[in-house]
Records
---
Amino acid sequence: NIQEFSTESEALTYIEQLRNGNSFDPINVVETATLLLQDSQINNWDIAYLYASNLKLEAFLAQENIGKAEELYKQISPLAKKIDDPLINIRLMMSELYIEFATGNIEKIPSLYAPLLSKAEETEDAATKGEIYQAIGLSQNNTLDLGGAVKTLKIAYEQFEKAGDINAQSEVLSSLANAFAEMGDLNLAVNYFRTSLELVEQGGDLFGKSVILYNLANAYAEFGEYEPAERYFVDAIAISKEIGDTIGVAWAEFGLAKIAVDKENWTQALDLLKEAKPVFEEAGDLDSLSYVMLSQGEAYIGSDNIAKTEEIIRQSEQFLLSGSSESYRLSYNELLIKVAEKKGDYKTANEKLNENFGLLRKLYEIENSQQAQRHKVEFETRIKENQNQILQKENEVNQLKIKEQQSQQHMWIVIIVLGSAFLTIVIVLLIFQTKNRNRFKRMALRDDLTNSPNRRAILQFAQERFLEAKHTDMTLTIALIDLDFFKKLNDQYGHELGDNVLKAFADTCLNSLRKQNRFGRYGGEEWLLVMANTSITEASLVFRRLRADWNNKVIDGLPEKHGISFSMGIAQFDKHTDQNLHAVIKRADDKLYEAKNQGRDQVIT
Ligand SMILES: Nc1nc2c(ncn2[C@@H]2O[C@H](COP(=O)(O)OP(=O)(O)OP(=O)(O)O)[C@@H](O)[C@H]2O)c(=O)[nH]1
């Protein structure tokens, strides 16, 4: 709804109305100014073209779209110089102040004040004077020359009062309030904001009102007074929505999101940022976008979403390259630090903390050195904390090593104990086995019933003696003894008593025979006597002694004079004829047979 203008001055009047009007909506102004400057170009209206372009530039600045603003500034500056329109040059100089601030050329800014101030002296127009002082005051505010800002803004206020521009007065009061807030005086700031609000309501500038509400909310938020801050942000959003100022809505949402981040309401913060982000994207406001993303990063790391945080960090890297401010780099690094700390990478965290310490130093060279000191202490504390964490980690590793050594020791103790137990068991088993073997060996050579050497044992002994006699001069006499009528005894008194008789006979043999003579159970009731170095005569004497002892032997279950007799056959080894032991035993058996036949109870040699 652009009017057709027949003259350049008509167009200029319209442009000025638009600029000073109550409903300065930056987005609409950008659109209208674009059409106006195209129109002016067609008509070759250089001055109207300049004013329209400058209006567009100011609208970009109001949107904080610094990139576009700078581009336009560079484009129209040469033309402005050529035409030498005083007002447009003043306005461009004022815009330059903000562009330099927004692009980080802080050092250059103070040098821009003097030419502007001399322009203020030159002009008679209170409104223009007011604008110049306002621009310088804002710039001083931005560069934290707060004392200077208050002085300059008060002059601006007076000029606007003179000019009767209520909206501008309200803006200046709002800027003064910002300066007081920055100085740490919230009460004074709030008072200024309230007066500013009253004026803007009188003036009916809704856009201005939303900006003041936003600033008021921001001041409360800075002081950690979240409740009024949230209230004023919500009010600002309502007005911005009413006038269709989507960027204003996004700014206030961003303000609320930052509070949500401070209050660690991560989900709420993320929701708000999600709303605000595309608006800044669309407007090409990369500066705001970059901060919104940092807040997203904070909310993600706060909600332990490391992957999302890292994604944000990756995406935000582009803003570092395009010459970002120290404070942006600080916040960016802060995210890296938090991620590193979460991941336990304290080395990177400390590197970045050190880098941030350097950045802060740089930042505070133009700010308050006391604040830098405070931050230095804070950072040093955190560096220490992280070093402690590193030490603690090392400690944990050492503890683990000690535990490992201890468990190794325990393992060795268990191995030794088990080994010893195993060895003991083996030794005990060996002892048992040896004992058992001896027992079995004994059992193998003993007669169970009479506990005298069995047939195998006595034959083994006889064989040894046989070989001895064969190879030496020693003699060997073998005798066979058989109890008489033993079958009858068994039949008459029972088998058990027969056993008793056998035991008693073995007992008698054991007691009566000399050490060098051995006897053993040769068969049922048959006994073999081996007598080394014993003559036949001596062997006959053995028979007599044995018979005498046997007759006196008391046997369980039989009368004292038991009357059981035995017969004996004796043979002596003959080196020339006896090929083996059995030959000798055979002859003894023959003699025994003879003794039995000749009436028993006798010995035959
Ligand atoms: N109680 C008992 N009897 C046995 C044992 N061994 C053999 N006998 C018995 O001894 C008897 C041997 O009998 P015989 O060989 O006929 O001879 P005998 O009755 O002694 O008669 P003569 O030798 O001719 O005087 C048998 O009845 C066997 O059962 C034993 O360990 N215990």
Note: The first helix runs from residue 8 to 20.
---
Amino acid sequence: MNPIIEQIKGGLVVSCQAYPGEPLRHPETMAQMAMAAEIGGAVAIRCQGLADIAAIKGQVKVPVIGIWKEGDDGVYITPTLRHARCCAAAGADIVAIDATRRPRPDGLTYAQTVEALHRDGVIVMADCGSFADAQQAVDAGTDIISTTLSGYTGEREKTDGPDFELLGQMVDAFPDVPVLCEGRIHTPDQLAEVMRRGAWAAVVGTAITHPTSITRWFAARLKG
Ligand SMILES: CC(=O)N[C@H](C=O)[C@@H](O)[C@H](O)[C@H](O)COP(=O)(O)O
């Protein structure tokens, strides 16, 4: 097992992302957010975009999971080999990529992408939207598989909280592969539950680092 993957076992990964046009969207700001999360106990930081990866890598000691989003539908999380290589070059210790079975913009298969990244020495995390995606990722020898895209690709219902069912299926089927639970973990209890169900680690984004969403959750309680 790679020592970086070993290092995050049992821990909380915090995703620090601001979306296009948002007030906090600045690499310096995301680096500050990442430092704050590290002080709070994050075992790794997940972040988006080459500038954010570089800024955060320069400020935190914990491993950085890098992605590069291009657009917001279809294959948009680190969609091509080029995007993934750039994330690694920017300093990501682990690169997360779209692991769906949809056609990739550069025409490579998922397996070809992973193979090329492994030749470069990159640790690859598969952002899956279904069990079939996870199977493909494991068949390709991916280092880490994750529930990240569950509820976002049309293959699975978007659950209110984390997709416990998919997590369970992945943990049961692939006992030798680290399975991360990511997506809609909104409370410490949900975090504890995904770990109890066998997640290697869990990624929390919105509930920790997206104040506009958190404010909306509170504000919504004031309306009818
Ligand atoms: C589907 C998609 O694009 N997910 C993205 C992946 O990086 C992020 O927008 C999420 O914030 C992240 O996965 C963490 O999940 P949550 O914010 O629900 O804790």
Note: Residues 15, 17, 67, 77, 148-149, 152, 182-185, 203-207 surround N-acetylmannosamine-6-phosphate (CB under 6 Å).
